[in-house]
Amino acid sequence: MKELLFLLADLWMICAGFVCGWKFIRRYGNYLLGLEWIIVATSGSNFLAWSLLGGDEGSVLFSIAYFFDAFSRSVGITLILVMGLMRVTHRYKPTLTVDIGVFALAIAAGLYLQQFRGHELHVGPATLYLVVNALTTLFLASFSWRLWKIRAKGLAVLSALATAAGTAIALIYDFFPIPGDDEYRTTHYILALATWGTQLFVYFRSYRALHDHNVATGAEPASNAPSVART
User: Fold this and answer.
1) How far is CA 13 from CA 5, 20, 44, 69, 192, in A?
2) 116 CB contacts (<8 Å, ≥6 apart)?
3) What domains lie within the chain, and their CATH numbers?
4) CA dist., res. 38 & res. 46, Å (int)
5) Phi, psi (5° rounding) for residue 121?
6) Residue 81 scores a pLDDT above 90
7) pTM for this structure?
8) For residues 96 and 104, what is the distance between their CA atoms, to the nearest angstrom?
9) What are 31-46's pLDDT values in tens digits?
10) Phi, psi for residue 18 in degrees, rounded to 5
11) Nearest to residue 203, comparing CAs of 161, 151, 174?
12) What is the 8-class DSSP label of residue 58?
């Protein structure tokens, strides 16, 4: 039963990442969020393959899984997420150079943090993940408040709950393992994957609501397609 729940949670995150990521790019020209969503989905696909093939920590799939995990926890679903959402909260449109630079930073962070892979607690990286998550949570709280102010109250509540759940998962991940969980931390990953998939879906719907509100009030044009002249 646990294996089935794990499979469903991972497939949920993969689908949410690929579908919503493509829509971010296609509909809104938001490459920061679109590519990050697709990276999370790719990470989930790799993690699923690694699990189905036996979960060998000596395999290359495990190294890839750890890289993607460090990529998103350090920069992807923190700095990149905030910068991407600022398109609809602050009309912030980064240049192509900034887009490339922030993904290069995330790649560098993922590669550097590879040295800490394993189940044992490494206080430095764990603290880093917790701090950047907390800072991101502060922004996401204001993001939920903006949804509330435009009367998207259902999405505001869902966004706040998804953010709170994500913060709880971040705490459990390194500092408070679930008592009685198995050696593969299956229960933890069921909760984590389900939560991350829900965050991807809810933040996309919330972004769409704020975008539509901005268009309706004349704060931005209906099309956010990227310009080929962007530098």
Assistant:
1) 12, 10, 7, 14, 10
2) 122, 124, 125
3) 2-216 (1.20.1070)
4) 12
5) -75, 125
6) yes
7) 0.91
8) 12
9) 999 999 999 999 999 9
10) -70, -45
11) 161
12) T
